[in-house]
């Protein structure tokens, strides 16, 4: 799913920049998106502070400037590189503590006719779909479209287009900002989504009170379902040991009295334990070797993909429990 997503993202940016103008990805990580852009013939540059992860990007043929993106970094890049037609950031914006400093850097480096593209989970979908587990320590902010509109205005930028991304992180948005001086007229979807947010009461405290009640009700139901399985002597494994999954199990108190172990595809996590609750983490192959009766799918946003990969588990009578956006038992 994510490979396909980033290929589509690269094509979207390439259609704006063409072969002759620079595309910059801030928080380029392992270079997946920029390597796809390179295959299209784009001129690209990544910016990322994580030297170890950047090595993966370089192996994909992506040029990376290793540093945090600050106004000073932007000045340095502006003095040595052409100013980019597109600066993009995907699931990085919600990790940034000082957004005004970051936006000042964008203002310095972005070409006068350029576009700043932000891909980030949308707060409205978080509320609608009870996605509280997307709020954890690395995610220092949750964004509505309105919040991006207001932030951009501080720096002479306006939102001119938005792509809805319903399959990414439970519901994300890809926001295109340009300088007001360009005079680009915003597409109708911008006004539609702003009205959608206003109608949903996103500025009303009551909306968040209702979310809290729904989240707690889901937790009570999860504990009952998993507790009933344990009373029947069933072995339960959690599928996924991500930050989001660990937020969910910690908030709901689903320790080893509910989950015998977690499985995850990332080999760096194997043999370790989840934070706080100390649930052992094993390879996905443990589903076959230890044969749990129930899989509690913490990576629920990949549920269909996981279900298709675990046909042998289903064939022997296994059951899936997916907690969000609504609790369901499959199998």
Summarize the SSE layout with pairings.
Blueprint: H1 2-17, E1 22-26, H2 32-40, E2 43-48, H3 51-59, E3 64-66, H4 71-80, E4 86-90, H5 99-109, E5 115-121, H6 123-128, H7 145-154, E6 157-165, E7 172-179, H8 188-199, H9 205-231, E8 236-239, H10 243-252, E9 261-263, E10 281-282, H11 286-289, E11 294-297, H12 303-309, H13 311-315, E12 319-322, E13 328-330
Parallel strand pairs: 1-2, 1-4, 2-3, 4-5, 8-9, 8-11, 9-10, 11-12
Antiparallel strand pairs: 5-7, 6-7, 12-13
Detailed description of the structure:
This protein is of the alpha/beta class and 331 residues long. It folds into 2 domains: 2-203, Rossmann fold (3-Layer(aba) Sandwich), CATH 3.40.50; 220-330, 3-Layer(aba) Sandwich (Rossmann fold). It is 41% helix and 19% strand. It contains 13 helices and 13 strands. It has helices spanning 2-17, 32-40, 51-59, 71-80, 99-109, 123-128, 145-154, 188-199, 205-231, 243-252, 286-289, 303-309, 311-315, and strands at 22-26, 43-48, 64-66, 86-90, 115-121, 157-165, 172-179, 236-239, 261-263, 281-282, 294-297, 319-322, 328-330. A 7-stranded mixed sheet has the order 3-2-1-4-5-7-6, with helices on both faces. Helix 1 packs across helix 2 (32-40) and helix 4 (71-80) runs parallel beside helix 5. It starts with a helix and ends with a strand.
What tags apply to this protein structure?
331 residues; alpha/beta; Rossmann fold; 2 domains; 7-stranded mixed β-sheet; 6-stranded mixed β-sheet; 41% helix; 19% strand; globular
């Amino acid at each position: 799913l994510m490979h396909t997503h980033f290929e589509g993202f690269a094509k979207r940016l390439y259609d704006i920049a063409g072969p002759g103008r620079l595309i910059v990805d801030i928080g380029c990580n392992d270079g997946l998106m920029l390597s796809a852009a390179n295959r299209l013939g784009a001129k690209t540059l990544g910016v990322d502070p994580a030297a170890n992860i950047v090595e993966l990007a370089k192996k994909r043929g992506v040029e990376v400037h290793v540093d945090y993106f600050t106004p000073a970094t932007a000045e340095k890049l502006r003095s040595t590189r052409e100013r980019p037609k597109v600066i993009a950031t995907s699931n990085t914006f919600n990790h940034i503590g000082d957004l005004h400093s970051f936006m000042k850097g964008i203002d310095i480096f972005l070409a006068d006719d350029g576009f700043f593209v932000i891909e980030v989970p949308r707060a409205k979908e978080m509320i609608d779909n009870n996605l509280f587990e997307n709020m954890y320590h690395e995610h220092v902010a949750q964004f509505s479209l309105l919040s991006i509109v207001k932030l951009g205005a501080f720096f002479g930028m306006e939102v001119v287009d938005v792509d809805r991304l319903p399959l990414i992180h439970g519901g994300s948005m890809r926001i295109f900002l340009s300088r007001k001086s360009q005079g680009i007229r915003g597409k109708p979807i911008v006004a539609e989504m702003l009205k959608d947010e206003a109608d949903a009461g996103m500025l009303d405290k009551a909306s968040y009170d209702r979310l809290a009640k729904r989240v707690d009700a889901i937790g009570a139901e999860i504990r009952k379902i998993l507790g009933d399985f344990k009373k029947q002597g069933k072995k339960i494994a959690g599928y996924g040991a991500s930050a989001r999954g660990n937020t969910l199990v910690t908030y709901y108190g689903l320790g080893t009295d509910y989950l015998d172990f977690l499985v995850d595809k990332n080999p760096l996590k194997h043999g370790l334990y989840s934070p706080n609750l100390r649930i052992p983490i094993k390879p996905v192959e443990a589903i076959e070797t230890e044969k749990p009766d129930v899989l509690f799918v913490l990576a629920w946003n990949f549920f269909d993909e996981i279900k298709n990969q675990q046909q042998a588990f289903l064939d022997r009578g296994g059951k899936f429990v997916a907690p969000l956006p609504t609790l369901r038992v499959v199998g």
